[in-house]
Amino acid sequence: MEKIIIIGGGLGGLFTGALLAKEGYPVTVLEKNPVIGGGLQTFYRYGAGFESGMHLLGGMHPGQSIYKICRYLGIMDQLEIRDVDHDCMDQITYLSDGKTYRVPQGKEAFADYFSAEFPDEKDAIHAYVDAFYQLVDEIDFFYLRTGNEHVYSHSDYFLWPADQFVNHFLKDHRLRDVISYMNPMFGGIAGHTPTYIHALINVLYIDGPSRFVGNSQQMADALARVIEACGGTVITRARVTKLNIEDRQLRSLQYEKDGQLVVMDCDMAHVIADVHPSVLLGMTDSKVFSKAYRSRIDQAPNSYSSFCVYVVFKPGTFPFINHTCYCQKDYGMVWHYNEYDEEDWPRGFLYMTPVGKNQGLWASTMIINCIMPSEVVARWADTTTGHRGPEYDAWKQRHIDKVLTVMKQLYPGFDRTIAHVFASSPLTIRDYYNEPDGALYGLRKDCQHIAQSQVPVYTKVRNLLMTGQNVNLHGFCGVPLTAINTAEAIVGVNKITCQINRFE
């Protein structure tokens, strides 16, 4: 059986590797960082652990897609997760009028809640919710239904700009804004984000979000154990630097490990890249990837990035909140997070208190995620973490202060609860995730340029495939589903899907 070599040990690489390992393939994962996981990584500061990216989970209830995949892989019992509050899965506060919305989970409860808040739009709200659920039902692989080799026919709404879809049903400008509050979860941008992305994320979380207890590293470690239990290997600190391609075949690859160059033969292997396509192209000068293709990838816009503030609380000073909170300065901004003005920043953000082991009434930490385009930090693009200079440090402190000013509006005396505070910028995401521009969701899904905004599983190299968030869908649900697509490109369409569906 051909061996499998995976470049990148993030969510996509680990899920794809685990699925293929279960099928009996010998799998080797090469991860550049000291720790596997990508957005699943957990890091520690001031004695506290922080998730680097994976804060909210969908699809983890019995019968849902990711739950079934985890059952199939035999890791569900290894994961410690907690559901968010059923009666308030999300809280949205607008500073302009002081209004707070507390959104319950469940399709009918979601529609009924907004109908009560905006009674004049009751019928329109129910029609809107029905429409995006119907649209998602068109996507077979979201529900792990066996499809016709992934060939689909979709409704007219499918590739509309998502804000146009919202506006088509709803008239109240406040309702249009607040009902679109999940935008930071998928990189929503006015006039560009396809409706199907908006619909998928909404359905995913309305149907019941969950969170990791302790940290998200547990998922990465569980997937690695599947690979290793099946005879595979996960190698960290292994940066792939070169791909040697001849006659549309990847013959070998080269990686750096502990200061040494290692060459791996790939002639009798499938190589799967869980990296941004521009990073992959940077590993080879092969003419099999034409100038036109390279230009297309170079010019394809990436999703926006983030400035994250991390807080360690003094014991017993800030209550634990078992849901995600959103803050908006005013209505009309939720589709425009990609626009930046330092005086007006942050227009909005989301924040959460992570679930600790033996979680009690008080939170120990908080993560505040503020959308920020990468060009804001372009002047320090040639620097590395810890060596960006005093100007950068001052810039970062100003932005921390801006965020804390808003938090004090939400929670008077918030500053007195803080033991430690620090932050990361788009450059941090770029360097640790290996994502150009620090893109949270890889290539920007763009209904104006749909062919440019995602790459296929297959490449022009016969034994080189792609996986991860740049292929189909991003996020905790989308990437494992994409992993199935990639794995089935090797083992056969619907083979793994049929096996997964035995687990409810």
**Alpha-beta content class:** alpha/beta
Mean model confidence by pLDDT: 94
* Beta-strand content bin: 15-25%
What CATH calls the topology of one domain is FAD/NAD(P)-binding domain
Q: In angstroms, what separates the terminal alpha carbons?
A: 30 Å
Please tell me the CATH architecture of one domain by its name.
3-Layer(bba) Sandwich
| Rg, Å, rounded | 22 Å
The helix fraction, in percent, is 25-40%
How would you portray this structure in words?
The protein has helices spanning 11-22, 65-73, 107-117, 122-137, 162-169, 173-178, 195-206, 217-229, 277-281, 291-299, 390-410, 426-433, 475-491, 495-500, and strands spanning 3-7, 27-30, 42-45, 48-51, 81-83, 90-94, 100-103, 210-212, 233-235, 238-246, 249-257, 260-265, 269-273, 305-313, 324-328, 348-352, 365-372, 418-424, 464-466. It is an alpha/beta fold. The longest helix is centred in the C-terminal third of the chain and has 21 residues, at 390-410. 47% of the residues are buried. The strands form five sheets. A seven-stranded mixed β-sheet has the order 7-6-15-16-17-14-18. A five-stranded parallel β-sheet has the order 9-2-1-13-19, covered by helices on one side. It has a three-stranded antiparallel β-sheet with strand order 10-11-12, with no helix packed on it. The two termini are 30 Å apart. It is globular and about 65 Å long. A hairpin with a 5-residue loop joins strand 6 (90-94) and strand 7 (100-103). Among the domains are: 3-56 and 213-300 and 447-500, FAD/NAD(P)-binding domain (3-Layer(bba) Sandwich), CATH 3.50.50; 304-440.
